[in-house]
Specification:
Helix content is 38%, strand content 14%. By secondary structure, it is α+β, with helices and mostly antiparallel strands. The strands form 6 sheets. Strands 6-5-4-1-7 form a 5-stranded mixed beta sheet, sandwiched between helices. Helix 11 (222-244) runs antiparallel to helix 13 and helix 14 packs antiparallel against helix 15. The longest helix has 23 residues, at 222-244.
């Protein structure tokens, strides 16, 4: 009996294999267009690699781009590079799955030489050119040559086939620190090398590298800030598209998905796509923090909480939340909750502008406002002051998440950084983070007055710390009640 798997493979592959065809398909192709120029980000990535390497003298650093992940059978998800790889190479978009950046220590010096290992294109006379669905030019487009990739990135390049020997060189004298769980083949290679040399420090070094690459992104350079601003600007356009789509959303049985789709179109057309799955949570769905099912109706008289961010081609993302009245006008009850959350936003931003403010204090400032309103509305078992005490925290029933997180290549950027570098750190110029307090009153919550039930509000902006203080990168996206209502009126009118 023949192998069934092989039979299935042959059913899908009916390509000719005679010599005449191979010659025919490989000949008479025109000149290729000129290769890419040096990218703008290459002037910044060199400094990033130098700062990282300085923390690991004499060690070999391995940063994989990652690999394609199967979505279904032989269909893959779109590729998205590991953020550490993107940050250190400048390669964004959907470029170079299975590529690996290696920082090789230079003997006798406190520095490293960067080498980018990847699979370059092959000649048109090769079988790969037309027959390989993974790398072939007929299937996935023309890949860069080694020289073209080096020109674009400013990094020396080599074929991925030479990586195993490069990793094994001087092993024992040189230890490897690697970003793991990005590429299973690279993980296996490094594990085998360490076992062969009886090296036991690998896990400790890997953890240190994860921390270092994360902490390296805590302060953004000028190029990164411009990319995040670009993502914010596209996101602002996406919000206008969603507002314009509200009339159709109200009429659709899954109106939340109408809004989700409107934003996704803008994010993909103007950027690389979504920075994260869009939350389009109407009515009581807004009280589920990560509502991404988006299968509900959008009803007149309710609020819709939209948490969305466009990711640009460089892979930097925005992260914006606006809570909008579906019919364009806040009810008195909705406005009361909305203004409380808005006041918490302002208190947090004011704290960010204080000298030597710490990151964790942004949350504390917002919670003072939230607790005060919850006391005023009769929700707390005691006073706001009692709730704010460490052994209280009753207000967190209605605001269970943190107020801020760093933002950049990841929507929750720098997440592997040490506590003293992140949560307990003093704010410094170049830091980019969100401010996003909220109040979530589930419709079945019997600890609150009836007028609050079913209302969920979050307001989120992206903040940059400068030498002169903290400012909103998303200042152009309306946030006060009068501005939001006018914005919705104008956006709907433009599409009518």
């Amino acid at each position: 009996m023949s192998n069934q798997t092989e039979d299935r493979g042959s059913n899908r592959s009916q390509r000719p294999d005679n010599r005449e065809f191979r010659t025919f398909i490989g000949e008479d192709w025109g000149e290729r267009p000129p290769g890419p120029a040096r990218s703008e980000v290459a002037d910044f990535t060199q400094s990033r690699r130098h700062k990282l390497g300085a923390q690991f003298p004499g060690q070999r650093l391995v940063i994989p781009a990652g690999e394609l992940r199967v979505r279904s059978n032989d269909t893959d998800y779109r590729f998205r590079a590991h953020s550490a790889f993107a940050h250190l190479t400048g390669l964004g978009g959907e470029l170079e799955p299975n590529a690996v950046l290696v920082l090789h220590p230079v003997e006798g010096e406190q520095t490293h030489e960067a080498v980018l290992y990847f699979h370059p294109r092959t000649p048109r006379t090769s079988e790969e050119f037309w027959a390989d669905s993974r790398y072939g030019e007929f299937w996935v487009g023309a890949r860069p040559s080694l020289e073209e990739m080096s020109t674009m990135t400013g990094i020396r390049t080599d074929h991925i086939e030479n990586l195993p020997d490069a990793l094994a060189k001087d092993l024992g004298q040189v230890h490897i620190a690697a970003i793991t769980e990005a590429d299973t083949k690279i993980d296996a290679q490094i594990r085998e090398l360490r076992q062969r040399e009886n090296l036991t420090e690998g896990q400790v070094l890997d953890e240190k590298l994860r921390e270092a690459t994360s902490e390296l992104r805590l302060r953004k350079d000028a190029w990164e800030i411009a990319e995040i601003q670009k993502a914010v600007d596209i996101t602002a356009q996406g919000f206008e598209d969603m507002i314009a789509a509200l009339p159709r959303a109200v009429e659709h049985w899954r109106g939340e998905r109408v809004l989700e789709g409107a934003f996704a179109a803008r994010a993909r057309e103007e950027g690389n796509g979504l920075g994260y799955d869009t939350i389009a949570a109407a009515g009581n769905h807004a009280n589920t923090l990560h509502w991404i099912v988006n299968d509900g109706q959008v009803k007149d008289g309710e609020l819709v909480l939209i948490d969305a961010g466009a990711e640009v081609d460089s892979l930097y993302t925005a992260d914006i939340t606006r809570t909008l009245p579906v019919n364009g006008t806040f009810s008195p009850e909705q406005a009361t909750v909305y203004n409380a959350v808005l006041e918490a936003c302002e208190a947090s931003l004011a704290k960010a502008n204080e000298p030597r403010a710490k990151f964790r204090e942004l949350h504390e400032a917002a919670m003072v406002v939230i607790a005060r309103y919850l006391e005023e509305w009769g929700c707390l078992p005691g006073t706001a002051e009692e709730s704010l005490a460490p052994d209280g925290q009753y207000h967190r029933r209605w605001m269970p998440h943190g107020t801020s997180h760093h933002l950049g290549l990841d929507v929750h950027d720098c997440a592997q950084a040490r506590r003293d570098m992140y949560l307990d750190a003093v704010l410094e110029p170049g830091m980019v983070f969100t401010i996003e307090p909220g109040l979530y009153f589930r419709e079945d919550d019997e600890k609150i007055p009836a007028w609050l039930r079913g209302i969920g509000v979050r307001i989120e902006d992206d903040i940059l710390v400068t030498e002169d203080g903290a400012r909103r990168l998303s200042e152009s996206i309306p946030r006060t009640i009068p501005a939001v209502e006018e914005w919705m009126k104008a956006a709907t009118h433009r599409r009518s």
